[in-house]
Amino acid sequence: MTNYRPTWAEISLEALTQNVKAFKDYIDKECQLMGVVKADAYGHGLVPCAESMVKAGANRLGVAIMEEAIELRKAGLEVPILVFGYTPKEVVHEAVDYDLTLTVFTEEIIEDVIHAAEEKQKQVNIHIKVDSGMHRIGLKKGGDILQILEKNSSPYVHVEGIFTHFSDADDEDPAYTEQQFHHFLSVVEEVENVHGKIPITHCCNSAATIAFPPMHMDMVRVGVSLYGLYPGEHMKKLISLQQVMSLKTKPIMIKTVYPGEPISYGRSYEPEQPIEVATVPIGYGDGLPRSLSNQGHVVINGQRSPIVGKVCMDQTMIDVSSVVKSSRNAVYTFFGDPKEEHISLQEVADQLQTIHYEITCQISQRVPRKYV
Ligand SMILES: *Cc1c(COP(=O)(O)O)cnc(C)c1O
């Protein structure tokens, strides 16, 4: 995308590559690494991130919806791609055309897959989703899975995998994750006893991959931590990761604002003494959270300066009084690599009482991603 204004999200493909390698080292040689790139690679850019991950050693890719998988195929990515979520009946034949692996969690889906595969006389892989305690999608019981598989079988459709998803693997207390894991193990055992061995059993997201190595099984599905973000503080000592995204801008105007001159919509901030205010061309229309109004900071040449007044749709004001001399041509960073003294995404997420996933996903398409 053309970039006329000085606002951009810097994506370090080197950091991403390092993170993939860190996970490859962390898991066993026989265990596969699936790079999860749903939601535009958590806002980092689907295709460039997927390409870097595969180049760095990711064996497979995971997405939430078929549109994302098709975009990857169109970009030339040939590794197996698992679609985690719901695939509507009308597009299952397209999934078969594009060699996508679909998740089966109802009888209807497997019927649709068999229908499309037989019509095209093409081999299709499916993965079965087990609900072990998140209560989102998935089949709870081994018996239910066996019943569906017995009723619906085809030489064209191969049960390549069976998986589940944890709801609380970032909790320091392992009890619920262990309970989910044992539920999953018992379902897998029950299904395999009748159906035969399923080649790829998998259950770990980033948090479980880091915190519970005995649960890795045949493959791990790592999303957020490939982007250098830790699901929990207690995991920092276990693996070393680098934050991939930094959000940057430059000032378009700097002026003095005096007492009695309120700043931005709603007049929520008024200086007590004259201050130097820089206006930057980024706002909530770019995904800069409006809740950072009068709360967030940017880092300018290693020093923090506060956001003053409400974040607008397209612009935001910063009190640069403490760095006024060096602020004119400087880069202002909302969040970046904490090793370079930037504010980490974790800190911003904590401040906003949300999770870092949400912040990177919300950086809008209006903000160009610059790959470095
Ligand atoms: C999003 C997702 C993942 C990755 O989760 P992270 O916490 O980002 O590592 C793995 N598996 C499934 C099914 C998902 O939906």
UniProtKB/TrEMBL annotation:
Pathway named in the protein's UniProt entry: Amino-acid biosynthesis; D-alanine biosynthesis; D-alanine from L-alanine: step 1/1
TM ranges: none
Alphabetical list of Pfam families matching this protein: Ala_racemase_C, Ala_racemase_N
Keywords noted in UniProt: Isomerase, Pyridoxal phosphate
CDD domains in the cross-refs: PLPDE_III_AR (cd00430)
InterPro entries: Ala_racemase, Ala_racemase/Decarboxylase_C, Ala_racemase_C, Ala_racemase_N, Ala_racemase_pyridoxalP-BS, PLP-binding_barrel
Residue ranges of every copy of the Alanine racemase C-terminal domain listed in the record: 244-372
Catalytic site: K38 (proton acceptor), Y265 (proton acceptor)
Listed name of the protein: Alanine racemase
Organism ancestry: Bacteria, Bacillati, Bacillota, Bacilli, Bacillales
